[in-house]
Design goal:
The protein has 216 residues and is an alpha/beta fold. It has nine helices and eight strands.
Length: 216
């Protein structure tokens, strides 16, 4: 029998929004302005998913002094409001999925490893009046796969882990869901492979957003 859930919490980058083109442009702009060589799209893709600090620590050349890497990361953050969302788009079918889940009375939230202000800037632009709770990485929300942020979000929603699904595109997302005791749904359209999702505990894999409605 198909399990159904009253609460759906989503990752952001690679799950709801295709942000990679902006991440590539922004990261290379920050690298160039810091005097470092550019990275390819594939390289930057391999760096994303664990927050901006991890992204820039890997993007700067090997052996870069920590202070220089920190300065490049701070420049990335400073540039983000001006050029961090120009190329970002919602994946096909996501807006319709969220509208239907909301129409069915489901509790909806976002939990991302993107820095918190970046998440709060994006959500109203693409999904106004949609989510009950929105969190990115910050002092009170540790980076996934630490499950504390997911559990905190569930508590804020007045929900229970047993009736919550966490939807994401990475092994880190699946591991987070597993550790929090929720149903982990992996999406195949994001930035990581289906193999990675399965190896990290995905309990279901969907290939189109509308397939998530089977769990609602």
């Amino acid at each position: 029998m198909q399990r159904r859930f009253d609460t759906f919490i989503f990752d952001l980058d690679g799950t709801l929004l295709d942000t990679l083109p902006d991440l590539v442009a922004l990261t290379n702009r920050a690298l160039a302005d810091s005097g470092f060589p550019a990275r390819t799209e594939d390289e930057i893709l391999s760096f994303v998913g664990n927050g901006v600090r991890a992204l820039m620590d890997q993007a700067v050349p090997l052996g870069t002094e920590p202070a220089a890497a920190e300065a490049a990361m701070q420049l990335w953050r400073e540039l983000y409001p001006a050029c961090g969302i120009e190329l970002t788009v919602a994946y096909d079918g996501i807006a319709e999925l969220l509208a239907e889940l909301k129409a069915r009375g489901k509790k909806l939230a976002v939990l991302s490893n993107k820095f918190d202000q970046g998440v709060r800037d994006l959500i109203p632009l693409f999904f106004p009046d949609t989510f009950d709770v929105v969190h990115g990485e910050c002092k009170d929300i540790p980076r996934k796969p630490d499950p504390a942020g997911l559990l905190h979000t569930i508590e804020e929603l007045g929900a229970n882990p047993e009736t919550t699904a966490y939807v994401g595109d990475s092994g880190s997302d699946m591991l987070t869901g597993h550790r929090a005791g929720v149903f982990a749904i992996g999406v195949s359209w994001g930035y990581r492979s289906v193999d990675e999702l399965q190896q990290n505990g995905a309990l279901a894999i969907v290939h189109e957003p509308a397939e998530i409605l089977a769990f609602a």
